[in-house]
Design goal:
By secondary structure, this protein is an alpha+beta fold. The chain is about 35% helix and about 35% strand. Strands 1, 2, 3, 4 and 5 form a five-stranded antiparallel β-sheet that branches. The relative contact order is 0.15. It is elongated and about 75 Å long.
């Protein structure tokens, strides 16, 4: 074998290994989805928020993609200084479906007063999200545990 053939063979072997190592896992993509989603809500960027939600969103509360979009617009008009805290993130991935559970607190200012609007310091709200992988992107398709929708 010539040096050129060995170099080409080595490159063909190394490229898939490098791609495998550098390509983010499904779990890290889902973590990023929630990190970016929380940041988008804090920045009141409705388009960025909705880019994390599937058009096929439907949950047991009767919420859909369009209803969530209108509800978020209403929230952004009434509140400011939104801060989202989440912890105890648990992600389970099963092929093209995933579930994520977390404890959430949301602080915001409304009518000149600032306080917790979801959960509080000793008692965060436990939320469960269902996700589906659409093409290469994970999107939220269902939410459970929303306060005020039980």
């Amino acid at each position: 074998m010539s040096k050129r053939s060995i170099a080409i063979l080595l490159i063909l072997i190394l490229i898939p290994v490098i791609i495998y190592i550098l390509w983010p896992s499904d779990e890290s993509r889902i973590k990023k989805l929630f990190r970016d989603g929380a940041k988008s809500i804090e920045e009141e960027d409705i388009d960025a928020v909705m880019s994390k939600v599937s058009y096929n969103y439907r949950d047991e509360y009767g919420l859909t993609y369009l209803y969530i979009k209108e509800h978020m617009k209403s929230i952004f008009q009434r509140m400011s200084g939104i801060q989202i805290e989440y912890e105890n993130l648990d992600i389970k991935v099963d092929n093209k479906a995933a579930t994520t559970e977390m404890d959430v607190r949301v602080i915001a200012t409304a009518g000149g007063e600032t306080g917790y609007i979801v959960g509080d310091l000793p008692n965060p709200v436990h939320l469960k999200f269902s996700l589906e992988k659409e093409r290469i992107k994970w999107l939220v398709t269902k939410t459970e545990g929303l306060p005020g929708y039980r």
